[in-house]
Amino acid sequence: MMDHEPAARRTRARSGRLASWLVRASLGLGLTGLAALPNEALAAEPDAPDSLINRRDRRVALRLHAELGFLSVLDNRLKLGTEGTYVDLRRDMGLDTLFLFGRLSGDLDIGRRRRHSAVLLWQPLDLRSQAVASRDIRVEDAVIPADTPVDFRYGFGFWRGSWLFDFFEDDREVAIGLGLQIRNANLEYATQDGTILRSARNVGPVPLLKFRGRGYVYRGLWLGGEIDGFYAPIRYFNGGSTDVEGAIVDANARVGLSWAHGIDTFLNFRYVAGGAQGTSSDPMPYSDGFNKNWLQLFAVSLGVSLR
Fold it and tell me: Residue 48 belongs to a domain with what CATH number?
């Protein structure tokens, strides 16, 4: 059975180049004002009374953020079991449409200048589709014959906690920090006649490095960028007990407007890439524990913040 490894390597190479370009773009957007504009333009946030949720004279401030938009799967390939088929999920499992995208997050800014921030994020991701197998697909120890209707689920939601330190004390932000992501994976193939059901489930920690930047370019108009990412080639970094290669990059660029009472609205462009390859130490009874999953996602969303 062909595994399409050369194509997969080319896909990962393209993914790496695209990820590198998007990371540079996010950094550029986040720091455009910082590098090119005078301080008075960067700090030109419109004067406003206390926000709806914070007072300026307090040493602790809460910021709340919500986004809603659509998500496109640029590329997603999955292999369950050492002898399994390396499946192109866009082509073979119908992940070639747009999906609802949303996320919720909150920041707790601490200190006299509020330069320390604790960030908590919830990102649901549950992609479901129906497809007719165009070829025989081996999943773990089972083979789904060609022309079989299949219900497919790609669930990979996560929770993420982060800490950031901001180098500036004014309305500019250049912050770096650390994060920990809890993955909640549920990957499932089910034939519609009920004869075959195979799934892979996993919950585990993922360490992250984090960067965030923001600057005002003219009064209430601002640009920002954010990057979370890590590469973990060995067990001690990826939260497992076996050597599993894993990587993630979550990069966004956004443009926003600040309004009175601490309200921001923004347009956000997000790129997420990553995956894992290796053998689990606690496989399902029908599995040898091996899985290989690499993906690229792109999302566009509108958001609102209270700060």
Answer: 2.40.128
228-269 confidence digits (pLDDT tens): 999 877 555 545 555 678 899 999 999 999 999 999 999 999
pTM of the complete model? 0.82
Three-state SS string over the chain comes to CCCCHHHHHHHHHHHHHHHHHHHHHHHHHHHHHHHHCCHHHHCCCCCCCCCCCCCCCCCEEEEEEEEEEEEEEEEEEEEECCCCCCEEHHHHCCCCCEEEEEEEEEEEEECCCCCEEEEEEEECCEEEEEEECCCCEEECCEEECCCCEEEEEEEEEEEEEEEEEECCCCCCEEEEEEEEEEEEEEEEEEECCCCCEEEEEEEEEEEEEEEEEEEEEECCEEEEEEEEEEEECCHHHHCCCCCCEEEEEEEEEEEEEECHHHEEEEEEEEEEEEEEEEECCCCCCCCCCEEEEEEEEEEEEEEEEEC
Number of domains, the chain: 1
Residue 50 structural domain:
5-306
